[in-house]
TrEMBL record:
Transmembrane helix as UniProt keyword: yes
UniProt keyword list: Membrane, Transmembrane, Transmembrane helix
Name the UniProt record assigns to this protein: Tryptophan-rich sensory protein
Record field: transmembrane: 34-59, 121-139
Amino acid sequence: MKEAQDILYGALRKWRLLKSTEPLLVALALGGSAYLLLSSFWVAVLAFLISLSVGLWFVRPWKFTLAQICSRVDETIPTMEHSTGLILENENQLPLLSKIQRARASETLKNHQRDIRIEHALVPTAGVSLFVVLLAWLIHASGVFQLDRNTKNIPEADVVTFQPLDSTDLEILPPKIRSQEIRISYPNYTQKLDTYTTQMNLRVLEGSRISWNIVFDQSVNGVQLQMGADSLQMDGTKDSFSKSLVADYANFYAIKFEDSLGNSYVSDLFALETYKDEPPVIEMEGLPQFSPFDFEGPQKLAFTTQLKDDFGLADVAIIATVSKGSGESVKFREERLDFDTKLSLGTKRQDFSKTLNLRELKMEPGDELYFYVEAIDNKQPRPNISRTETFFSVIKDTVTNQFAVEGTLGADLMPDYFRSQRQLIIDTEKLIAEKPVIETKEFNFRSNELGFDQKALRIKYGEFMGDESEGGPVVVTEVEAATEDPLAEYTHDHDGSNEHNLVAEEHEDHDHEDHGNEDDAEDPLEAYVHNHEDPEASTLFAQSLKSKLKQAMAEMWDAELYLRLFQPEKSLPYQYKALKLIQEIKNSARIYVHRIGFDPPPIKEDKRLTGDLKEIGNYSKNETLEKEDEYENMRKAVARLEVLLDSDSKITKTDQDLFNKAGNELARKAIEEPGKYLETLQTVKWLSESENIDTQQMKNALQGLYRALPKKQVLPNSSGCYQNELNNLFIESLNVE
């Protein structure tokens, strides 16, 4: 029984789906036709949504019920004996006869479920929809619909005027443009609607497709679109013509055609300007160029970024590089980080925020972070990419400071084992953190080991102070010499046995009673030798650093004491004090060498200040540089126009070729300043194509070419005459001109 009920429910779902497909097909057909006829994506979407909503409301597939399905089954399957409705009834509420009939109907439905026929009009609807789409495509291909949309009254400023190129005067009315339309289709990524205009001077986005549709009031033989030096044949017959191309760069164009009698006409020049898709603009707020952080403090860097683009953003990210180590062992790790704010694809302006946690980047003291923000727009096929300047962040290393020397070269000669105090602090902090989870025996063992490491480090520093024993500084005590040495028989007296070979000691006349002055006599070699008998003088550091190093060693003593007593918490303050003092010592103990520069040769004293230049020669080089003239044809055209104006000669084919080349050279400047040179370029264009040119047009072309030609650079030269006020007065008095 359950299977029979599922058959009925499936038939209901199928019926609703088929009835919903009918308005969907109609909506697709209307939306596609709107796009083909109007060439507007949003208009097509609007037509699709409206037609789909109206169709669904008219059909109302959600109104179909199981009762209607049962009636349809009873009509299409006679063996059901109009008992399909019993399948949906509750068996406990039916009498015995109805139960028997219900079971028979269920079995019959299972055997004839393929015979169920649902009423729908899907096939006719699909056929009509396909016909509508094909009809719209034919209208779109013929271009009739677009031309019908044109305004019959072209604005006066947009009217295209033509000039005949043949000298023969004809008593006929030349063809004119009855309707004109230019369709600008922007690239798909811009999401801009197609625009239509009757103005021939265009300024479009680079990569846009431009379609010209022109209708004449008479039949013409052919129409050409002269784009720069190229002539493109327009498609069409009789009076309607069209042409489409992609604008990749700025240019000039004109329309040329022949009437039914073979006479040629050309229009004025029109400017085709293109502008580029600008890259995204990134503005950073609240972020300094360099951000240092302490190791113990918070290591978070928060900032906001504002992004803008003319046609929409496609992606934005933070490109971060973490630098570890120094010198040849430096390592870099690059990561691509996302902002905390999610990017809305296609948005033209959006604010982003980010909080960089240096701990999450696994940075340690001394590590550096370099990052910048990169934004990509949705331009196709090659997007524009913008990036900010690089920002720096560093975690201060309490042991090693990176220094820079201006004007000299610096050398850091401190040994590497100065860094171990920092490791002792890290291990001590780790031991304190793990105290609750480890046994007391292990805790005491590790604390004692740290105390031993602290002792080893202190001994190393003691060597720099002149200590030669592990027990601390050398204590010098004066003991009276014994009269007899008990070890004299077992040792060699190197100093005493060689007394007869020593040089006699010279004594100066002085007061022998003052013995104290002899001890205080200054030793001339004291500044150049190490007195190892005196620990205070045997240090490798300057006198100003001795006190700091002594204090650091004292702090190490206290740190070691508490580590030996299994109290690392009390040892930490002393370790930090020792670390700070060591850092100050290291920053002070730097050795600088002189900058390596130019070492001039020695001067010969016998030649100095003599003024002898016999052995000194002057360097001279003669070279002729030929620069290609970018306006050679324009200069030739100026010369030829002057000849034509002075004589009654006519423009020949050679002259037209010359004017055509001169126009191409002038077009380079006209693209940059169309308002200044466009009129001259138009006149030169007519000279290159027409035989019927009057004198005024040639004069205008000559003046324009003179203004366009760059001025020659005046070279310095010597004047052949000398004039002053006295000479001028003398000449005037003689009446000599």
